[in-house]
Amino acid sequence: MLGTRLFATALSVYRSFSTKSGDKVTYGVQKIYKRKKNARIQWTDQQKQIIYAIRGRKSVFVTGSAGTGKTFLLEHIIKLLRKQYRPSQVFVTASTGVAACALKGQTLHSFAGIGFQMADRDTLLNRVFSDRKACSRWKKAKALVIDETSMLDAQTFDNLEFIARNIRQVDSPWGGIQLEVSGDFFQLPPVKSKGCFQNSSKDDKEFAFEADCWNSSFHLQVELEEVHRQSDPQFIKLLQSIRRGKVGPEELEYLERFRSLTTTDSSMVPEIYPRNADVKRVNEDRMKSLNNEVLVYSAVDSGIEARRKLEGIVPYELALCLGARVMLTKNLNPWRKLVNGATGTIVGFSNIDGVNEDMFTDDEDGEEDVLTDDDVDDETIDVAMSRDGLLPMVEFDMGTTMVIKPATWVVKEGDKVVAERKQIPLMLAWAVSIHKCQGMTIDRLKTDLSKVFEYGMAYVAMSRVRSLEGLHLSGLDPFKIKAHPKVERFYESLAIEKDENCEPDYIKPKEDSRSIPFDIPNKKSFGRRKFRFSLTRLVSSR
Ligand SMILES: Nc1ncnc2c1ncn2[C@@H]1O[C@H](COP(=O)(O)OP(=O)(O)OP(=O)(O)O)[C@@H](O)[C@H]1O
User: Fold this and answer.
1) Same domain, yes or no, for 292 and 409?
2) Is residue 488 part of a domain?
3) What is the C-alpha separation between 153 and 138, in angstroms, rounded?
4) N or C: which end of the chain has fewer CB within 10 A?
5) In this entry, which stretches build a coiled coil (predicted)?
6) Are 256 and 216 members of one domain?
7) Closest C-alpha among 245, 214, 168, 101 to residue 494
8) Is residue 240 part of a domain?
9) Candidates 78, 181, 186, 229: which one to mutate for ligand 1, based on the most atoms within 8 Å of Cβ?
10) Given a cut of 90, is residue 261 above it in pLDDT?
11) Could you tell me if residue 431 is inside a domain?
12) For all residues of the chain together, what is the average pLDDT?
């Protein structure tokens, strides 16, 4: 493995020296340096506070509207936690397989070893006790990351806390595991409440924040306020209204006015549907209508359960043809906006030998791209994936053209990879489901909101785009844009806490805060509650 990495690194450096001429000879090395320098992120104060708290080994719940950088921050926090503890002591999970794969983690269920059959908490505990590996994961864990909590139910959250305490034999929340939980409850709710739009009875716990242990699980709960995905303040305001299910005549009029100005060719724009059947139908019809030769990429699997475990995350067979509209399903190059959700058109199929040259596509400013360490694993291209070893060349809507190499999806149980699939990180994108696009940034989309059947669906669909120019909207029915009343109350309680503590003894994070986590007088006397009050503007109602 190390040998392959070294070889690939050497190869990529060699290419950047050998394939270019004149004053660009040393360019590859310079570019790597420049990238690293440019890659410094300007964290917002709230994001810094969370990072600071994580370094102080506090458990944190991070929420916020779509595009406030929850996932972006989470990726950074995972790196921090892995340095803070040992990588094998940090478990990265998500409530859904798609979200787990995006973080190179595993589903929460698979980490926990509780299986999918409903049972009371004692039965679940026995299940985990009888699973040696699951038991060892719980005992070993120092930090547990859970993403997309909006889709996790209260009972599971409580059960897992009970299991953690009992297996670890430590009588503190989650048996002393540091938690980093992330999600926006105004987005898609737990699957249990599917097809809803009805209020459940008062005692019927649904969302994770209703779990008995929710408040005692966190030292700090923060609602990120600064939206990064969109920059137009009016659009951000509109999305906030939709998030909270409060679309009035003013918002409708604004949208209507904007719609008449939208001139983009909508045949190129992905259609976002609430139901998978519509997605499948539209994609198949559009592909047929092109009448071009279809290339089918069969995934390369390892692990006997790869098919079952990766079902619904990445397809075993991917059919593509010239002219097909596609969307990236992995983050390839964030600097060039080649991220999960970037759309484009297949403009050709390139022989594998041509790939590396094509990877050096010019940037808009005439600079070249180089392979960095992160790309090295992808160097091993499985030629057997498609007939003739042809790889799709995609012209992305933002201008870059790239040959897309296979990427790898892994399913882990603990530290062990139990299933692995190599496939081209693309999906047909004439149509996409709302569930599939949660978490994505999409440049332009078309959606008919008259078909939404779930809380948060309209908001998830509309908040994917960066600007209103990218949104082709129809069927906006104000009565179908609803926020769950329980969710509204939860966020109201966060806001009340924020107001009560609006002039917190604001502690600015220090550059190197790891050795002295909090510069607070009387540090020893600070329990969870005091810490909360002094650190952040938004805290739990414990
Ligand atoms: N501090 C920051 N400065 C600049 N850009 C940022 C910052 N934080 C996040 N971003 C950018 O904001 C965009 C949205 O981030 P991200 O996808 O993490 O949001 P999110 O809150 O997880 O959204 P969603 O709820 O829709 O999944 C990304 O393109 C990310 O690079």
Assistant:
1) yes
2) no
3) 20
4) N
5) none
6) no
7) 214
8) yes
9) 229
10) no
11) yes
12) 74
